[in-house]
Amino acid sequence: MKKLDVFLLFIIFLTAISLRLYHLTSPIADWHSWRQADTAAVARNFFKFGFDPLHPRYDDLSNIQSGKDNPQGWRMVEFPLYQLFGAGLKAFVPSLSIEVSLRLVSIVASAGTALLLALLVSNFVDKTTGLLAGFFYAVLPYSVYYGRTILPDGFMVFLSVLSLYLISKSLEAKGRRDWFFVIIGAVAGALALLAKPVAIFLLVPVPYLLYRKFSFSRYLVIGLLVYWVIGLLPLWWWRGWIAKFPEGIPVYTWLFNEGNIRFKGAWFHWLFARRLGELILGYWGLIPLGIGLTVTPAKKEGWFFRIWLLGSLLYLVVLARGNVQHDYYQQLLVPIVVIYLAKGMRFLFSRHEGISRFAGMSVGIVSVIFMLAFSWFTVRTYYWINRPEIVEAGKMADQLLPKNAKVIASYNGDTTFLYQINRQGWPLGFDIDKKIKMGATAYVTVSPTDNDGETRALASRFTVLVRNDKFAIIDLTKPK
Fold first, then answer.
1. Is residue 327 very low, low, confident or very high in pLDDT (cuts 50, 70, 90)?
2. Phi then psi for 443, rounded to 5 degrees?
3. What dihedral do alpha carbons 427, 383, 17, 276 form, nearest 10°?
4. What angle do helix axes 98-124 and 3-20 make, rounded to 10 degrees?
């Protein structure tokens, strides 16, 4: 690799890191804070209850997510690999907060994905297209925001792309080295599936790559068995393990097609217009993306990227409701989107008979500028903290309440407020006496003058520690 190529890759990596440091120390109270809070709570609770990845615990003791009371706060979703890395970083650098540690893991993983995409596309298409793909992954506002959030998705994407990259390296390897790449690629795939099982949709091209390596032969069968046994066995074991803790498994069947939304007008509107067109590509990015989809694949590329695209579309189809409901689900799409975006830009910047190169370059430059500007116009709001009082109330409650307190953090079922208080408990009021019997020792609300009278009723029965126009903290262990 030439020195210039290494320098440009370093610039892409540095750009990706720098952009994602924006609001690094902000509290978890921005967009999708509830999911970030649940993820961060698992890492934080490793320091409270011990580093036991087989028994991850978060702050929600209610029955809201699983339909069953969860007195231990089990969080049995994906294996807490991402949280282990974040907690490990904090253990190594104690001065870092757990939130900053987790964000740094996300940032490095996201920047690593940009590098891997640049290398992967350079190998299968050309260096210019590869650098463009890495650049777009580094700077797309949607990618930037979710590349620093406290979610396992970006970590999963990195491991999935790493697996594809390693398998692709086996195509050029000879002797035993090809099996070395297949095995470590399978290990990366296994970790991706543990980080979040939807990685399976990113790994759809693996059989094609192995076919490219071994053609139709017994080695192809062996390669597929090696990859998928290594890749799927840990996930199979983990899913069997968490089945022992049903109270910690959120209801998930709704993710597939609740409301029968698949292929309905709303499905197309939300996923292809609002998410892909507006949020990710800022409208104007659809121009180079569309061109990239029509460009004849490079000879070495073959069907690789088209199969990858098919896997990404299959993901939207299978988890139809989940993708419509949550925009962070579309992180899985970004790698293949930037690949075709880069192919389109490469076409616009190249000479073609009957097409003005100046016009093509102008359209490309304007498209990129408008794409970044219009996407950022939406994404910038994701950083906003619209309810700063939950952070203020959380800090006050954390100071006043015992470390072993169990808190009712009344916030309409959203666990963000509970996370700010740094205690386990319930994110919703109602049935207060039942919750007291279950161990609740304090009530905290950011609706101190609530209309339903819950706060006023509790204030008349128990000792009020703090009550102002922003929040109230009531000690449920001290009746009046």
1. very high
2. -125, 125
3. 100
4. 150
Global pTM value: 0.96
pLDDT at residue 452, as a whole number: 64
For 17, the 3-state DSSP assignment is helix
Coil, strand or helix at 7: helix
Q: Which helix (H) or strand (E) holds 38?
A: helix 33-49
* pLDDT category of residue 194 using cuts at 50, 70 and 90: very high
Rounded to whole angstroms, how far apart are CA atoms 59 and 421?
Answer: 10
Strand partners, 57: 74
Cα within 13 Å of Cα(259), Cβ side: 13
Q: Quick check: 360 and 349 in contact, CB under 8 A?
A: yes
End-to-end CA distance of the chain: give it in Å, rounded: 75
Dump the DSSP string for 419-434. Answer: HHHTS-EES--S-HHH
CA dihedral 190, 195, 198, 200 (to 10 degrees): -10
DSSP annotation of 148: S
Check whether 31 has a pLDDT greater than 90. yes
444 forms beta bridges with 409, 473
What are the backbone dihedrals phi and psi of residue 408, each rounded to the nearest 5 degrees, phi first? -95, 105
Q: Do residues 187 and 227 touch, judged by C-beta distance below 8 A?
A: no
- The Cα 366–Cα 282 span in angstroms is 12
| Distances 18 to 9, 108, 157, 160, 334 between C-alpha atoms, Å | 14, 10, 20, 23, 19
Give the pLDDT score at 425. 97
Cβ atoms of 448 and 455 within 8 Å: the answer is yes
- Give residue for tokens 């959120």: 250
* Sheet containing 442-445, strands listed edge to edge, beginning at the edge strand earlier in sequence: 425-426, 407-410, 442-445, 472-479, 462-467
**Structure token pair of residue 154:** 């970006």
- Cβ neighbours, 10 Å, residue 408: 28
Cβ atoms of residues 272 and 348 within 8 Å: no
CA distances from 462 to 423, 437, 442, 453 (A): 20, 15, 10, 14
Check residue 280 and report its DSSP letter: I
Both tokens assigned to 351: 């000479």
Tokens coding 68: 């069953």
Confidence of residue 368 (pLDDT cuts 50, 70, 90): very high
Two tokens, residue 46: 């490793």
Angle at 342 between CA 336 and CA 346, to 5 degrees: 150
- Helices then strands, counting H and E runs in the chain, come out as 21, 5
